[in-house]
Specification:
It comes from Vitis rotundifolia. By secondary structure, the protein is α/β, with parallel strands linked by helices. Helix content is 30%, strand content 14%. It has eight helices and 14 strands. Helix 2 links the parallel strand 3 and strand 4.
Length: 362
């Protein structure tokens, strides 16, 4: 049987998106304006005066709703060492009290197996056709999820979309509630301030721009059936945004995050904004009550323990210092005065690298 090319599938999906765009306009009911948040002390659902959480989506007190952890990755050394650390801490936290963490999949969008297949559960998918990502590798993420959701057997009803540079600090429960996925609110995702651009992809007939949540696709815990609906639209909106020069310039490296937020809104999906889902050193100072460390930012300090962000510090930890291979074992700890979040990050990296065999492989 002849093999269908990935380019044909992408173009077919694009055609489907435009064909169904008007249908979505007629069928999606406008959501009420407002934002769901969660109290960090006891995770009780709170809402603004306009939105109320339906009682029928509240999780029974003792019910367990496991979710599948899925992250997209490449076969580059930079991606591999982060995935190994992430998977190490997943295994450490998965079976502890309070966890609803289920299975794990690294969705490898390089098109062929690599040398981590036996260490980390991996599902290989195709990358976008050559040149379609225009050097923006993250465009492969929605396309990878589309393929994985279509082809893989996933036992869990829920999925956590994660990233290689996530470390589980403590066991993660299912923070979603029925058809309300849980997501982390990013301070730099600002749909309202970018309404002019958002309206190119989220027309006024869909409702207020506040329907577009200030989130990316990760971390998000979402029902599998919802993600199956959103993922093709997320892919197509990402490609359309990249094709639009103004959108590409303004959104830059977070373009794909905006695309997920818009795609979700097009399908009428609203997320619970879970502030204790994740922390991001060096800006977040403590790990208490948080579940995931996201080490996307460089951490630079002088020997007095003072942050020197934007200037290489006398002590530093920055994942981008290790693009071509893994960081060495036993990294030096930060000087006194550095926030606990940064100290915890380095200690967790050190523990993983000390226990992972063949750490120097690329």
């Amino acid at each position: 049987m002849a093999r269908i090319s990935p380019l044909f599938l992408v173009l077919l999906s694009l055609g489907f998106f435009f064909a169904t765009y008007n249908l979505l306009t007629m069928t999606i009911q406008n959501r009420a304006t407002g934002t769901l948040v969660v109290d960090e002390s006891d995770r009780r659902l709170l809402s603004d005066p306009i939105i109320e959480m339906p009682e029928n989506v509240r999780k029974p007190k003792n019910a367990k709703l496991p979710f599948h952890i899925a992250l997209t990755a490449t076969d580059a050394p930079y991606s591999k060492w982060q995935c190994r650390i992430m998977y190490y801490w997943y295994k450490k936290k998965k079976d502890l009290p309070g966890s609803e963490m289920g299975g794990f999949t690294r969705i490898l969008h390089s098109g062929s197996p690599d040398n981590l297949m036996e260490e980390i559960p991996t599902f290989v998918v195709d990358p976008l056709p050559a040149g379609l990502d225009r050097g923006y590798i993250v465009l492969n993420r929605p396309w990878a999820f589309v393929q994985w959701l279509e082809k893989a057997t996933i036992e869990e009803e829920y999925i956590l979309m994660a990233e290689p540079d996530h470390i589980f600090i403590k066991p993660l429960p299912n923070l979603a509630h029925g058809d309300y996925p849980a997501a982390y609110p990013f301070f730099y995702i600002k749909p309202v301030q970018n309404e002019k651009i958002i309206r190119k992809f989220y027309p006024e007939e869909y409702g207020p721009v506040t329907n577009v949540d200030p989130i990316g696709n990760s971390p998000v815990i979402i029902k599998r059936e919802l993600l199956e609906k959103i993922a093709p639209t997320w892919m197509n909106v990402s490609l359309r945004m990249k094709d639009d020069p103004e959108t590409d310039k303004v959104f830059g490296w977070v373009l794909e995050m905006y695309a997920y937020a818009v795609a979700s809104a097009l399908h009428g999906v609203q997320h619970i904004l879970q502030k204790d889902f994740m922390l991001q050193p060096p800006w977040d100072l403590e790990t208490a009550k948080k579940f995931i460390i996201h080490y996307t930012y460089g951490c630079d300090y002088n020997l007095k323990g003072e942050l020197t962000y934007g200037k290489i510090g006398e002590w530093r930890f920055d994942k981008r210092s290790f693009l071509r291979g893994p960081p060495p074992r036993n990294l030096s700890l930060p000087p006194p005065g550095v926030p606990e979040s940064v100290v915890t990050l380095v200690k967790m990296v050190n523990e993983a690298t000390a226990n992972l065999p063949r750490w120097d492989i690329k």
